[in-house]
């Protein structure tokens, strides 16, 4: 499980219009956002909620796992899925830290029925490879 400081809070959650890198796998959809650390003066002047506590640099990548009710009516399954994703992220944290993205939002693609821990790990591995290639190309 990830420590609380590695999770996105409501105030640091990216706006839907922010530029992002989108990726879809077999089980997961990942939105990766560059951090707003580089241009904080713009965010402070605009009253951006991401600028709260902006005087302190952020500590690496931060994550959110979002599971809508329409994909699983059972809160138990939703929470189990979130835990599985967070464990997989924790195992790959060193690779996430090397990327230039600072915020990640992760969604399931289809209805959650059973444990898919291995597919989650495989999807995250493919995402990391794809995003590394994307950064190398730019």
Overview of this protein structure:
- It contains 4 helices and 4 strands.
- It has a single domain, classed as Ribosomal Protein S5, domain 2 (2-Layer Sandwich), CATH 3.30.230.10.
- The termini are far apart.
- The chain has helices at 40-46, 75-91, 93-98, 117-137; strands spanning 20-24, 28-34, 62-65, 101-108.
- It has a 4-stranded mixed beta sheet with strand order 1-2-4-3, with helices on one face.
- The longest helix has 21 residues, at 117-137.
- With 138 residues, the protein is of the alpha+beta class.
- Residues 37-47 have low confidence and may be disordered.
- It is 37% helix and 17% strand.
Give structural attributes.
single chain, 138 residues, alpha+beta, four-stranded mixed β-sheet, 37% helix, globular
Offer a quick outline of the entry.
The chain has 138 residues and is of the alpha+beta class. The chain is built from four helices and four strands, in the order ββαβααβα.
Topology:
Layout: E1 20-24, E2 28-34, H1 40-46, E3 62-65, H2 75-91, H3 93-98, E4 101-108, H4 117-137
Parallel strand pairs: 3-4
Antiparallel strand pairs: 1-2, 2-4
Helix pairs in contact: 2-4
